Give the backbone structure.
Amino acid sequence: MTALSSMVFVLMLLSLFLLGVLTLRLARTSRQQRSSIEELNEALRRTREYAEQQKSKLAMRSDLDTVKDEFISTVSHELRTPLTSIRGALGLLSAGLLGNVDPKAQNLLRIASSNTERLIRLINDILDLERMESGRAPLKLRRCSMYDLAHEAVDTMTAMADGAGIRLELTSFAPRDSIYFDADSDRILQVLTNLLSNAIKFSPTGSAVAVQIDSNPNSLLVKVVDQGRGIPADKLEAVFDRFQQVESSDSSKKGGTGLGLAICRSIIQQHGGAIWAQPNQTGQGTTLWVQLSRSARASDSASPGVIEPPAERGDGLILVCDDDPGIREVVAEQLRQHGYEILEAGSGEEVIALTRKRAAQIAQNGNGARNGVSVRPISAILLDLYMPGLSGWETLEQLREFGPTASIPVVILSVIPPTDRPPQAGNAQGWVQKPFNENLLLAELGRVLRVKGQSGHLLLVEQDEAMARAILEGFGDSGVRIDHAATLQQAVDRCLLGPPDLLILDLTLPDGDGFSLVDWLRRQPGLQALPLVVYSGREVSEAEMAKLRLGPTQFLNKANVQPQEVEAVVLTMVQRLRNPAAAPVA
Amino acid sequence: MRQILIIDDEDDIREVAALSLEATAGWDITTACSGADGIRVAADPQRKPHAILMDVMMPGMDGPTTFRQMQQNPDTAGIPVLLLTAKVQGVDQRRFAGLGVAGVLFKPFDPLTLAAQISEALGWKD
């Protein structure tokens, strides 16, 4: 009995002890849970606050844009009316049609006339720039020959060049069959004549201005080379800003508006290309470079007058959501022309209702065909961010919360550049900045649909062979296709050949650095919102991070993350992009 | 001699346009300062013009409305009308062209070539 009672006693003690331990642990766990719930709440509150701020900023921007558009359009009309009388009166007087004019008065009339012309050009340029930047001047793309366009520009400018005693020389280094590309020919012509007019204005009499065309499999290059006074190094970028001249007296002496290069840059960017200025190697004069990508479909044959769709034929049902019926109509029409089937929604609420209804129909019909009626699933959603009622953010959130609609790819249409996208937009698969052109939209949509349909394709940009091998080993038999580029040029070529689904980037490269690659990618249609993992050997500062952001971007330090561990991060990211509901947003 | 009617609510523009056409082409110009006034002049058999150059934005009846009224009036229906506008946006151009006018010219016009632009739009060879 004694033994039994002592055993019972020991057992009682033991259970008391266990109970104590358990209570203690429970208390600690609930404290931990409480604090993590508090943290979550705080994070949620901050996210909501951020979303609210963004929403009101967007609302403000959109209202301001409308007011600005109307204002500029009205002002330009109101200015034209008095200018009509002034131009008419001065023109008739200085032409001597109403009798002879004293030479001194004639000179004054000439001054008044030429400045009237300048004012008219200025108003036209302001209106032009404003229309382009507000997205109300969509590009009319067709297959063009760069040689023909350059030839036409040279012909147009010959009279001006002759007047200034300057020779225009056109040379093409590109094989004749590799100069075709998809572009708005009027707009490209406008750029070329503008560059020529600038070159002529700033060249000494008796010198030559050269136009040179070159190409590689992926892009076309046009150079306008002058022998002028050159642009100082600190102004090479600034000359593309509005009303920026190398010397403040230039606009009055040369009769320019100060908007020419800003318009050129706007047009080239709309085409997904790049334009920049560089001093000539000889030390005299400047070269203006224009780089345009030859679309993947370019078939190296002319098809004059035929409007050709620039991108691959699309296949799928796309839901286009924007509260502006005008934008909806334009987008829908462009996508239809490229083979997509379109559904439209005027609000976030409509998107939710439509997607849920369709999901329910599909679930009910089994494989989608019953009673001879098949319901096609929605392949992707194009979603405006700022809308009355449910905003784009909230719509996205609600789509993700509901199982059957959670993994529909979403491409955001926004005035915010993809590089500034806020953290909670991380689970939209695509991003197109407004104003957008057709190519950009199609490229991004194509990319998003591809990512969904295929096994992953990654590009590793790493100059160190041993490091690259180690990272590649990490991926082992994950089934992901992974290409390796050791230089900036190789990376550019790879991206143009076939855009990867994700880029792993080292910052140090033998022929440049990661920053210049990101900078280039940001200017390429379809690559602007590429998911990116920066894997660098050093700490990346906040400022540098801002310069490196593309699409969803993560930063890894080689000091903390082993090459073999990159795989896990990357695959989680790819997984999340494909199926946002499956993995939490980092 | 060609007779042209200019309809514009701006006195200065009427005067400059008239001077320009007289001095460069030697045409005979009448002017009117509103749509209603223009219709009265155009419908008058004594003063019926060969062509009308008309402003788009005018108080009261604007250019397009005046044009439509002229089309319905047998006395004025056959006269070719050219619109003169300070609106240069593509949307406006297409809207005006859709009216069935003989042409659209833009402000500010070049006073030395205005007559040539009108002749070209109307297919006048002389």
